[in-house]
Amino acid sequence: MWATHPYKWGQKYSIWPIHFCTGCGSIEMPPTMLAPYDASRFGMGPMASPRQANLLMITGYLTPKTLKYVIRTYEQMLTPRYLVSFGSCPIDGGMYYTSYNTINHLKWYLPVDVWIAGCMPRPEAFLMGMNKLMEEIEKGTADGYLRYERDREYYREHQERALGSNFLEDLKQVEWITE
Hints:
It is a single chain. By secondary structure, the chain is α/β, with parallel strands linked by helices. Strand 3, helix 4 (about 90) and strand 4 (about 115) form a beta-alpha-beta unit. The model has no long low-confidence stretch (mean pLDDT about 85). Helix content is about 45%, strand content about 10%. It is globular and about 45 Å long. It has a four-stranded parallel β-sheet with strand order 1-2-3-4, sandwiched between helices. The protein has one domain (about 5-175): Rossmann fold, CATH 3.40.50.12280.
């Protein structure tokens, strides 16, 4: 495979994650980078800035305030960019799903490429999710960033509903980065 599509092979083994730690999910991230899990053997290395990363991992529940910063972070990343929902909270609100201040269903606001379910998923589940993402990159089906561009109206409508119309004005300060 790598001989016929070296670009896809390079993408598959060059995953530079940044995790947006909004809850207890971030406690499971450091062990994945250390022995015995050693995610770096798969070409992963943590990044300090969204402009250096191509994978955004949401590791906890989201409120409207944190969703605003997650969207800004996602839009600052270079393409191709991927989004992984780590844990039950970003999937459906988790144990906070009935709270007035919890964003349920991250998929309404940003395109999620891989879901890693659990409360909290263990490092093994994280590695399985990364393996799934690598397979999707190789097959060309990890296309969340393309869906985000194609269906921007859909995502903007949901973002505006959750965050208000002022959010879109604030976001224009960031959009020059992605153009």
